Amino acid sequence: MTADFNVFNLFTTPWFWSAFAGWSLAQTIKMTSGFMKTGQIDFRYLLSTGGMPSAHSAMVCGLCTSIGMTEGFSTPIAMLAAGFAAITMFDAAVVRRASGHQAKIMNQMIDELFRQHKLSQTKLKELLGHTRKEVFAGMAVGIVVAAFLVRFWPPA
Fold it and tell me: How many Cβ atoms are within 10 Å of 72's Cβ, its own excluded?
């Protein structure tokens, strides 16, 4: 096995495209959902965090699934990808969700203080993490996208 030092070859692999397509589809679903609610296209959804489905989960599950389908699910690299996916999804559902809850409470405190004193009204972003349902939906998006891409990827 020879080492490939051409970084541009990254863009010729099903692993990259599965991860990228999973993330892109999840963010597009969020943007479409926002459009259906407001009637306006908001491109900020393409780079936003939080919401349904989790783009982080879609990306890591797309990567993990494509690696497993091409290299074998019992290989060390597939185990590494699965661990990476599990940590990412746990973080999205637990750690970042807790940060969002804390931001919500702090924003309420700022509102209460602002009504009584002159303070800056800078708000913290509250939609940081995901519910388990959003993480699961992102996982499903990533797996389906990767399975489709790997299935139809041209043979090397």
Answer: 11
- Kindly list the domain boundaries of the chain, sorted by start residue: 15-152
DSSP code, position 122: P
Q: Which amino acid makes up residue 137?
A: A
Residues 61-91: pLDDT tens digits?
999 999 999 999 999 999 999 999 999 988 8
What average pLDDT score do residues 11-23 get?
Answer: 95
b/e sequence 80-113, b meaning 16+ C-beta within 10 Å: ebbeebeebbebbbeebbebbeebbeebeebeee
Tokens representing 14? 């099903």
Predicted TM-score (pTM) of this structure: 0.74
> CA dihedral in degrees (65, 69, 74, 75; nearest 10)?
-90
Continuous segment of H or E residues that includes residue 49: none
Q: Are 68 and 81 in contact (CB under 8 A)?
A: yes
Distance between CA atoms of residues 127 and 26, nearest Å: 16
